[in-house]
Structure formats: structure tokens, C-alpha cells
Design brief:
The protein is mostly helical. The chain has helices at residues 3-19, 35-43, 51-61, 66-69, 79-86, 91-99, 105-111, 116-132.
């Protein structure tokens, strides 16, 4: 094969790769989509205080890093939910309230009273984390 033919073939391959349809995005994970139910799932995790479980939660809620996280199926799965909740002004008081609840799901649920927008965003985030980290890292 001549160099010209090879370069021509290479150009055609590059064109098809560049023009191939974009990978269809996965729908967002929301799991149980309920703050209290997600809390109840997390309280059953025997390893919830382990480094591996904390790592799952951190990696699931932060943007996926292609260079280090590609082998972790949960990487970045809850990132969009995390951003939406973090940017919701009504959630700052809720976060302070939750910090005082320890593992009481009833207490956590009450923190959302009158904070409907924050509850909705938190339900998606907490449900996502409960879904993607309900694995051997945390159970």
C-alpha cells in the first residue's frame, strides 16, 4: 500500500470516528428518591464508616476523573445531583440541622420541613448515593 493510500484510508477512518454519533448519556440515578428511605438504607450499611465506603460516596458525588476513576462504575454517578443540591440556597440550614442528627432518619427527615426545593434535590442525591454505594464497599 502506498503512503498516499494509507493516509487516505487514515483520513476516512478519522472522519468516521469524529462524525460518529455521540455516546448516549445514561439517565441520572435517583434510587429510592426519598430522603428518609435513603437514610434508612445507609443506616443498614455495616461498613458505612470504612474508608472504602467513604471513598465510594466521595467518588460518586464528585466529577469522574477519566484518568483515575474509569474502573469504578459509580464514579461521578451522583455528581449532577450533588451540584444541584450544593447550589440550592435553602439547603445550607438543612445541612447544619442534619449534622446534629447523627443516625436518626426521623431527625434528618424533619430537617427538611418547609424546605421543599432542598428536599427534592436531596432526595435525588441521597437516593443516588444509597443506590450506587449499596455495594460490598458499604454493606
Amino acid at each position: 500500500m502506498s503512503v498516499r493510500c494509507f493516509l487516505s484510508s487514515l483520513s476516512v477512518v478519522a472522519f468516521f470516528i469524529a462524525c460518529s454519533p455521540a455516546k448516549e448519556e445514561e439517565p441520572p440515578v435517583v434510587g429510592v428518591n426519598d430522603v428518609k428511605k435513603a437514610c434508612e438504607i445507609r443506616t443498614t450499611w455495616l461498613k458505612r464508616d470504612s474508608d472504602k465506603c467513604r471513598e465510594c460516596i466521595a467518588i460518586a458525588t464528585n466529577a469522574a476523573c477519566e484518568c483515575t476513576d474509569r474502573q469504578r462504575a459509580y464514579a461521578g454517578k451522583c455528581h449532577d445531583h450533588h451540584l444541584k443540591r450544593a447550589n440550592e440556597p435553602t439547603c445550607s440550614d438543612v445541612t447544619k440541622c442534619i449534622a446534629s442528627c447523627t443516625d436518626s432518619c426521623d431527625c434528618i427527615d424533619k430537617c427538611y420541613e418547609g424546605k421543599d426545593q432542598c428536599r427534592t434535590l436531596s432526595a435525588a442525591l441521597d437516593g443516588c448515593v444509597a443506590e450506587v454505594c449499596n455495594t460490598e464497599e458499604c454493606k
